[in-house]
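Reader question, answered in our methods column.
A reader sent in the components of a multi-part assembly and asked whether the whole thing could be modeled at once rather than chain by chain. We filled in our standard form and ran it. Here is what they sent:
COMPLEX SIZE: two components
ENTRIES:
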Amino acid sequence: MGLADSGMLQKPVAKPLTWLLNYSRKYSLWMFQWGLACCAIEMGAALASPRYDMMRIGVIPFPASPRQADLIVISGTVTDKMAPAIRRLYEQMPDPKYVISMGSCANCGGPYWDSYSVTKGIDQILPVDVYVPGCPPRPEALIQAVVMLQEQIQNEGIGNDDMRKRWNGEPINVV
Amino acid sequence: MSTTEQPSVPTNSGPDFNPGPDFKDIPAFEVDPGLQRHLADARVNVELDTGDMIINLGPQHPATHGTLRLVVRLDGERVIAADPVIGYMHRGYEKLTEFRTYPQVTTLINRIDWLSSFANEVPFVHAAEQLMEIEAPPRAQYIRTALTELSRIATFLLFLGEMGLQVGALTPAFYGFRDREHVLNLIESATGGRFHPNFNRIGGLKDDLPWGWIAETRNVMKIVLDACDVFEDLVLGNEIFQARTRSVGIIPGELGASYGVSGSNLRASGVDWDLRRDGAPYLAYPELDFEVFTHPDGDSFARYWVRLQETRESARMVLQLLDKMPAGPIMAKVARIIKVPAGEAWVETENPLGQMGYYVVSKGGTGPFRVKIRSASFSNVSILPWMLRGVYVPDVVTILASLYFILGDIDR
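And here is the structure of the entire assembly that came back:
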C-alpha cells in the first residue's frame, strides 16, 4: 500500500479519501478459508450454495495462498496439533488482515471444553475480529459476521491508532 | 507442396535421430531397478537421474476434506509412496465419553461424522437400549430410519457435487449444494438442527414429526430423484469425468475387505455386503424392500456410480417408509435419570461412509465406562498408501475425493 511507509497515516487524512479507501477494501475481501470441521461444510454452503452465495456481498473465497488473503475464517475445531500451522499461515497474510472465528469450537472449545487435545479458543493464538456463535452456525450467521466486519472496516479511520497498528501488523485491542 | 519438397528440418526424434558423437561418450549410469518401471512407462529414452521429491499435501487443503496430511514422495509426476498423517482433528472422543452421561454422549457423537450426524446417533442409542433391555416403539423406529436415510441422501448429494469439483467441474458442486439444502430443511423442520439434530433419546425420539412433514418429504424426494438423473447425465456421462476416473484408484475386493474398507467403497469393488441387509436387523430395514448396488470395477468411477445409485435407492426407501409409517407413541417408558445396567454391547450399522460401530461398556452408572468407536473412514483411508503407489499427482486428488472420508470420522 505504501501509505504506512510514506508516513501519510500520521497526518489527518481527508474524509472522502478515507471513505473511498475503506469502501474499496470492504467489498473486496479475499477470504482464506480454513475449513477444519463441521463448520467448514456450513462455510462451504455459504460460499458455494446458490441459496446463500456469499460472493454477492464482496467476499472472494478462492485465494490460492494466504499471501493473497485479507480475511481468514477459522471454521471448526482447532486442535493443539493444528494450532502452529494456523499461526504460521496467519503470519504469512499481508496486513491489514482480519480474522473471523466461526463456531463454538473456534470461539472457546465448544463441546470439547474438557478435551485434552483441543485448543480452547482460537483467540489464544490469533487476534479475532468477529466471533460467530453456534454449533455449527448457520450460513446466514457467517454472512452476518462478514457484514459486521465490513461495517467495522468502513468505520476505521485512516489516521487513528488502531488503523496504523493494523497497517503495521502490530497487535491491536479487539473491543 | 508435394511430398518430395519437404524441408529438411532437423528433428530430435524418430528413427533417423542422430544425437551426435558426443552423446555416446557419456557413460551410462546405473539405474535403480525400481525406477526402471517408471522410466519405461514414461517412455524416457535417456536415463536422467531425477531425484525423488517429497511434498506435503495438507494439512490444510481443500481436496483433503479437512485436515488430512499426506506426505507424498514423487518421482516427477508419479507418486512413489504416500503416507497419511492423521491426528489433526483428534478431539479425544473415547476419553470424553467417560465423563459424560448417556444423553450427553449423544450430543458429542453427532460430531464424529458431521455430514451424517443422525446416522451416528443410532448405533450408540441402540447399544444403550440393548443394555437397558428396552426397545423404541415402531413409529420411533420408522422416523429414525427415515431420518437416517435423509442424512445419507444429504451426505451423498454433497459427494456427487464435490467429486465433480475435484475433477475440475465447478457446476456439479453448485447443484449438489442446492439440492442438499432441501434435504437439510427437512431434517431441520423435524429435529430443529440442520447439522447436528441430537434428536435420538434412549428409548425413542425427542418429538413427533411436525404437521405437513410427510407431504413435504414426498415433494423433496421427487427433487432428489430428479437431481440423481441430472448427476447421471451431467457427470457420469461426461467424457472428461470418465477419463479422470475410469481405472484410476482400483481397490480389489478381497484386498479392500482385508484392509477393513467398508460401505460404498467396498461395494464399488464388487463385494455384496450391506449391514442394512446382511447385519443384525436394526431399525425398520427388515421391513423395507431395497436393492444393494455393486460395481465390479472398483475404481473411482465405480465408487461414484454406486453412491449415485444408493442416493436414488435411499430416496425410494424414504418414500416406502412414509407409506408404511405407523401411528403410536414415539417414546418408550424410560426413567427420567437414565442409568444403564452393567454389561457390554456392540452395535454396528451401515452409515453413509461405511460400517460404524460402538462397543459400550457400562458399569451401572449414569455414564458409560468405556466406549470404543469403530468409524468407517479410519479403515477406509488405511488403504491409501497401497492405492496411491504409482498414480499421478492429479489422480491423488480424485482418489481422495472418491474415497469420501470425513476427518472427524478418522481422528475422532
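What stands out: Helices of chain A lie at 15-26, 38-48, 83-92, 104-108, 139-154, 161-168. Residues 139-154 of chain A form the longest helix (16 residues).
Send us your own complexes using the same form.
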